[in-house]
Amino acid sequence: MKNITDSFVSVRHWPSAGSFEFNTDILATNLINLSVVLGVLIFFGKGVLNDLLDKRKQRILSTIRNSEELRRGAIEQLERARVRLRKVEIEADEYRTNGYSEIEREKVNLINATCNSLERLENYKNETLFFEKQRAINQVRQQVLQQALQKAIGTLNSCLNSELHFRTISANIGILGSVEEITD
Fold first, then answer.
1. pTM > 0.70: yes or no
2. How many whole angstroms separate alpha carbon 177 and alpha carbon 152?
Protein backbone atom coordinates (compact mmCIF):
# COMPACT_ATOMS: atom_id res chain seq x y z
CA MET A 1 0.00 0.00 0.00
CA LYS A 2 2.80 2.25 0.78
CA ASN A 3 4.18 1.63 -2.63
CA ILE A 4 0.96 2.75 -4.31
CA THR A 5 0.66 5.98 -2.44
CA ASP A 6 4.31 6.71 -2.81
CA SER A 7 4.02 6.59 -6.56
CA PHE A 8 1.56 9.45 -6.55
CA VAL A 9 2.55 11.43 -3.52
CA SER A 10 6.33 11.04 -3.41
CA VAL A 11 8.12 14.23 -4.01
CA ARG A 12 11.34 12.66 -5.16
CA HIS A 13 9.65 11.23 -8.20
CA TRP A 14 8.09 14.46 -9.19
CA PRO A 15 9.81 15.61 -12.20
CA SER A 16 10.99 19.05 -12.67
CA ALA A 17 8.96 21.52 -14.58
CA GLY A 18 10.78 20.89 -17.76
CA SER A 19 10.12 17.17 -18.08
CA PHE A 20 7.08 14.94 -18.08
CA GLU A 21 7.10 11.29 -17.13
CA PHE A 22 4.53 8.44 -17.16
CA ASN A 23 3.93 6.11 -14.30
CA THR A 24 4.31 2.63 -15.70
CA ASP A 25 2.93 0.74 -12.70
CA ILE A 26 -0.39 -0.18 -14.29
CA LEU A 27 -1.74 -2.15 -11.40
CA ALA A 28 -1.26 0.63 -8.90
CA THR A 29 -2.63 3.37 -11.14
CA ASN A 30 -5.68 1.40 -12.26
CA LEU A 31 -6.80 0.61 -8.73
CA ILE A 32 -6.48 4.19 -7.68
CA ASN A 33 -8.18 5.47 -10.83
CA LEU A 34 -11.00 3.00 -10.37
CA SER A 35 -11.47 3.92 -6.72
CA VAL A 36 -11.50 7.63 -7.56
CA VAL A 37 -13.96 7.10 -10.42
CA LEU A 38 -16.17 4.93 -8.26
CA GLY A 39 -16.03 7.42 -5.41
CA VAL A 40 -16.98 10.30 -7.74
CA LEU A 41 -19.73 8.22 -9.30
CA ILE A 42 -21.09 7.21 -5.93
CA PHE A 43 -20.89 10.71 -4.53
CA PHE A 44 -22.37 12.53 -7.52
CA GLY A 45 -24.32 9.70 -9.15
CA LYS A 46 -26.02 8.57 -5.96
CA GLY A 47 -28.85 11.11 -6.26
CA VAL A 48 -29.28 10.56 -9.99
CA LEU A 49 -29.19 6.80 -9.52
CA ASN A 50 -31.68 7.02 -6.65
CA ASP A 51 -33.97 9.22 -8.80
CA LEU A 52 -33.69 6.79 -11.72
CA LEU A 53 -34.37 3.82 -9.45
CA ASP A 54 -37.31 5.61 -7.78
CA LYS A 55 -38.80 6.51 -11.17
CA ARG A 56 -38.32 2.95 -12.35
CA LYS A 57 -39.87 1.65 -9.13
CA GLN A 58 -42.86 4.02 -9.55
CA ARG A 59 -43.31 2.94 -13.20
CA ILE A 60 -43.19 -0.72 -12.17
CA LEU A 61 -45.67 -0.14 -9.32
CA SER A 62 -47.91 1.87 -11.64
CA THR A 63 -47.74 -0.87 -14.23
CA ILE A 64 -48.58 -3.47 -11.57
CA ARG A 65 -51.54 -1.35 -10.36
CA ASN A 66 -52.76 -0.89 -13.93
CA SER A 67 -52.37 -4.58 -14.56
CA GLU A 68 -54.35 -5.38 -11.40
CA GLU A 69 -57.10 -2.94 -12.44
CA LEU A 70 -57.16 -4.42 -15.92
CA ARG A 71 -57.28 -7.92 -14.43
CA ARG A 72 -60.17 -6.94 -12.14
CA GLY A 73 -61.95 -5.32 -15.08
CA ALA A 74 -61.38 -8.42 -17.20
CA ILE A 75 -62.70 -10.63 -14.38
CA GLU A 76 -65.80 -8.41 -14.06
CA GLN A 77 -66.35 -8.53 -17.81
CA LEU A 78 -65.91 -12.29 -17.74
CA GLU A 79 -68.48 -12.61 -14.95
CA ARG A 80 -70.91 -10.34 -16.82
CA ALA A 81 -70.36 -12.38 -19.96
CA ARG A 82 -70.99 -15.61 -18.01
CA VAL A 83 -74.19 -14.18 -16.52
CA ARG A 84 -75.30 -13.02 -19.97
CA LEU A 85 -74.43 -16.46 -21.38
CA ARG A 86 -76.51 -18.15 -18.66
CA LYS A 87 -79.43 -15.83 -19.43
CA VAL A 88 -79.14 -16.50 -23.14
CA GLU A 89 -78.94 -20.26 -22.52
CA ILE A 90 -82.04 -20.09 -20.29
CA GLU A 91 -83.88 -18.03 -22.94
CA ALA A 92 -82.78 -20.47 -25.63
CA ASP A 93 -84.09 -23.38 -23.54
CA GLU A 94 -87.36 -21.50 -22.99
CA TYR A 95 -87.66 -20.76 -26.72
CA ARG A 96 -86.82 -24.35 -27.51
CA THR A 97 -89.36 -25.63 -24.97
CA ASN A 98 -91.96 -23.07 -26.02
CA GLY A 99 -91.22 -23.82 -29.65
CA TYR A 100 -91.77 -27.54 -29.12
CA SER A 101 -94.91 -26.81 -27.09
CA GLU A 102 -96.13 -24.43 -29.78
CA ILE A 103 -95.42 -27.02 -32.45
CA GLU A 104 -97.33 -29.64 -30.46
CA ARG A 105 -100.22 -27.19 -29.94
CA GLU A 106 -100.29 -26.34 -33.63
CA LYS A 107 -100.17 -30.03 -34.48
CA VAL A 108 -103.09 -30.76 -32.13
CA ASN A 109 -104.99 -27.74 -33.48
CA LEU A 110 -104.38 -28.86 -37.05
CA ILE A 111 -105.51 -32.41 -36.24
CA ASN A 112 -108.61 -31.04 -34.48
CA ALA A 113 -109.37 -28.68 -37.36
CA THR A 114 -108.96 -31.54 -39.84
CA CYS A 115 -111.22 -33.77 -37.74
CA ASN A 116 -113.80 -30.99 -37.53
CA SER A 117 -113.61 -30.44 -41.28
CA LEU A 118 -114.00 -34.17 -41.92
CA GLU A 119 -116.94 -34.29 -39.51
CA ARG A 120 -118.61 -31.31 -41.24
CA LEU A 121 -118.00 -32.93 -44.61
CA GLU A 122 -119.47 -36.19 -43.31
CA ASN A 123 -122.52 -34.31 -41.98
CA TYR A 124 -122.89 -32.44 -45.27
CA LYS A 125 -122.60 -35.73 -47.15
CA ASN A 126 -125.22 -37.34 -44.89
CA GLU A 127 -127.56 -34.33 -45.25
CA THR A 128 -127.06 -34.37 -49.01
CA LEU A 129 -127.79 -38.10 -49.13
CA PHE A 130 -130.87 -37.60 -46.92
CA PHE A 131 -132.20 -34.77 -49.11
CA GLU A 132 -131.46 -36.68 -52.30
CA LYS A 133 -133.19 -39.73 -50.82
CA GLN A 134 -136.20 -37.59 -49.83
CA ARG A 135 -136.28 -36.01 -53.28
CA ALA A 136 -136.10 -39.42 -54.93
CA ILE A 137 -138.86 -40.70 -52.62
CA ASN A 138 -140.98 -37.64 -53.41
CA GLN A 139 -140.41 -38.10 -57.14
CA VAL A 140 -141.36 -41.76 -56.87
CA ARG A 141 -144.45 -40.82 -54.83
CA GLN A 142 -145.44 -38.22 -57.38
CA GLN A 143 -144.94 -40.64 -60.22
CA VAL A 144 -146.85 -43.38 -58.37
CA LEU A 145 -149.61 -40.92 -57.46
CA GLN A 146 -149.73 -39.63 -61.01
CA GLN A 147 -149.91 -43.13 -62.38
CA ALA A 148 -152.55 -44.07 -59.79
CA LEU A 149 -154.57 -40.98 -60.64
CA GLN A 150 -154.28 -41.67 -64.34
CA LYS A 151 -155.30 -45.24 -63.75
CA ALA A 152 -158.21 -44.14 -61.49
CA ILE A 153 -159.31 -41.56 -64.03
CA GLY A 154 -159.04 -44.16 -66.74
CA THR A 155 -161.05 -46.62 -64.64
CA LEU A 156 -163.61 -43.98 -63.74
CA ASN A 157 -163.93 -42.84 -67.31
CA SER A 158 -164.42 -46.36 -68.47
CA CYS A 159 -166.92 -47.16 -65.70
CA LEU A 160 -168.77 -43.89 -65.58
CA ASN A 161 -171.26 -42.90 -68.06
CA SER A 162 -172.55 -39.36 -68.50
CA GLU A 163 -175.52 -39.78 -66.15
CA LEU A 164 -173.34 -41.10 -63.29
CA HIS A 165 -170.92 -38.37 -63.99
CA PHE A 166 -173.66 -35.73 -63.75
CA ARG A 167 -174.94 -37.14 -60.43
CA THR A 168 -171.42 -37.17 -58.91
CA ILE A 169 -170.90 -33.55 -59.87
CA SER A 170 -174.29 -32.56 -58.45
CA ALA A 171 -173.56 -34.36 -55.17
CA ASN A 172 -170.22 -32.61 -54.85
CA ILE A 173 -171.87 -29.24 -55.53
CA GLY A 174 -174.42 -30.01 -52.83
CA ILE A 175 -171.65 -30.83 -50.36
CA LEU A 176 -169.84 -27.61 -51.18
CA GLY A 177 -173.08 -25.62 -50.75
CA SER A 178 -173.71 -27.06 -47.29
CA VAL A 179 -170.08 -26.31 -46.29
CA GLU A 180 -170.59 -22.66 -47.31
CA GLU A 181 -173.75 -22.37 -45.18
CA ILE A 182 -171.92 -23.73 -42.13
CA THR A 183 -169.02 -21.32 -42.53
CA ASP A 184 -171.35 -18.30 -42.90
1. no
2. 26
